[in-house]
Amino acid sequence: MGNPVEIRAWNIFGLPCDSFSIDNGIIIKNSRRWPLMIDPQEQANKWVKNMEKSNGLVVIRLSMGDYIRTLENAIGFGFPVLLENVGEEIDAVLEPLLLKQIFKTGNAWSIKLGDAVVEYNESFKFYITTKLRNPHYLPEIAVKVTLLNFMITPVGLSDQLLGTVVAKDRPDLEAEKNQLIVQGADNKRWAR
């Protein structure tokens, strides 16, 4: 389900190498709803920041006074947005965005945020993270997002530590692994 070269790029951007984290990355890529990531160790936060940096990532928090204005601009220009450190409740103004209630106005797509109608650029992406270890989201929120748990599991920690040790002790093996991943992807493309 996941492209090995893309997954390797995610790992380079900071997504942990364990299968649990990779599965979460694949879900985010293929989901129709925006991701809400439970991320007490801030690994998903780091991954999104590194992955979307070159696309003009905008980082906002609900505590910022002008976060809606910043969000409106990012939606219009098609910049990815990371809403970080949310609690168990999410501002109701964001509901049309969570539900992707976009509509056509003339030749352009638009979305209503509060009182403002904003042009919606289809390149826009929205990520949400929380540092809470065990949040209790109401069903009204949970059905509007793709809820993902990025908390480190014992197996995940073991996989991450093993990957770090191999990369440090045997960089030649790490380089060979990367080369084989790229070669495997090339072979798959050639076979089609």
From TrEMBL:
One Pfam family here: AAA_9
InterPro entries according to UniProt: AAA_9, DHC, P-loop_NTPase
GO molecular function annotations of the record: dynein intermediate chain binding; dynein light intermediate chain binding
Ranges for domain Dynein heavy chain ATP-binding dynein motor region: 8-189
Top-level taxonomic group: Eukaryota
Residues annotated as transmembrane: none
GO biological process: microtubule-based movement
One GO CC term, this protein: dynein complex
Descriptive protein name: Dynein heavy chain 7, axonemal
